[in-house]
Write a structure and sequence with these properties.
Layout: E1 2-3, E2 17-21, H1 31-55, H2 65-76, H3 81-93, E3 95-99, H4 104-115
Helix pairs in contact: 1-2, 1-3
């Protein structure tokens, strides 16, 4: 999964990269099962913060209901306005590459063992 703002970075060749990865080896640790979900959730939160911030940079009497709801939902999930802005900026200024499962065989072996 690659998250990249091609509009904001259209003229940049040197966009810093962030790598989110889980399940790197054939370990029998629980990270093999929970790591991929954590990576997907991190990407979901990053994208939701960016979407929410893009609806309107400010919330005032002229702001759409959708922007207000989006910010309220994020606050209900424990994401403050400052964190939302920071995560949205991260999406706008970085190329984020997410690899939920780097070792598919190890993930499958662990999952098969758990399911019996």
């Amino acid at each position: 999964i690659t998250v990249y703002d091609g509009v904001a970075n259209a003229n940049r060749q040197d966009v810093p990269e962030v790598l989110l990865v889980a399940a790197l080896d054939r370990s029998t640790e629980e990270i093999d099962l929970y790591g991929p979900s954590a990576v997907y959730e991190a990407v979901r939160i990053l994208l939701e913060c960016a979407r929410c911030e893009s609806l309107s940079p400010y919330v005032d009497s002229t702001t759409s209901d959708e922007a207000r709801r989006c910010r309220s939902d994020l606050r209900d999930d424990g994401i403050t306005d400052g964190t939302r802005r920071w995560l949205a900026r991260l999406v706008a200024t970085r190329r984020i590459v997410a690899v939920p499962v780097a070792d598919l065989d190890g993930y499958h072996a662990r999952l098969s063992g758990e399911l019996g």
